[in-house]
Amino acid sequence: MAVWAIIENKNEILLIKRSESTSISGQWCFPGGGIKHAESPESACVREAKEEVGLNIEILEFLMEYEGEYFYKCCIVDNDHEITLKLNECDSYSWVQPKYILSLGIIMDLKKVYMVLNSMGYQIELNDEARNIIS
């Protein structure tokens, strides 16, 4: 089971690029990861955001559960936020308007990302390859 934090700030969402030391290197995704034994999905979401990008977040809304993965809409708690990457897990980040996420490169689990962002009312500009993946 995994959790993912969809962190919004000024009409943009935060995506991280997985580092070369991971099995999904080079792919972009929301901050998140595995749920530890006896940990609630909500606690795991907050912990993972702090570990991966150094942000204190607040969960605003449970968005969906899909195939054992939990997605949460979140916001940053600190006004003076500074992203600090956990380099063995991610080597880059980007704040991006959701409709332009494909401009970053390969999106991990694009179909799930599309479903989540669509449930939040966002439209993504899809190319032919992306249309094939989500259909």
From TrEMBL:
Keyword Repeat included in the entry's annotation: no
Domain of life from the UniProt record: Bacteria
Organism from which the protein derives: Zooshikella harenae
Transmembrane segments annotated in the record for this chain: none
Family: Belongs to the Nudix hydrolase family.
Name of the protein this chain belongs to: NUDIX hydrolase
Cofactor: Mg(2+)
Pfam family, any one: NUDIX
Keywords: Hydrolase
InterPro entries attached to this UniProt entry: Nudix_hydrolase (IPR020476), NUDIX_hydrolase-like_dom_sf (IPR015797), NUDIX_hydrolase_CS (IPR020084), NUDIX_hydrolase_dom (IPR000086)
Domain (Nudix hydrolase): residue spans on this chain: 1-120
Gene3D superfamilies with a match to the protein in the record: Nucleoside Triphosphate Pyrophosphohydrolase (3.90.79.10)
GO molecular function, one term: hydrolase activity
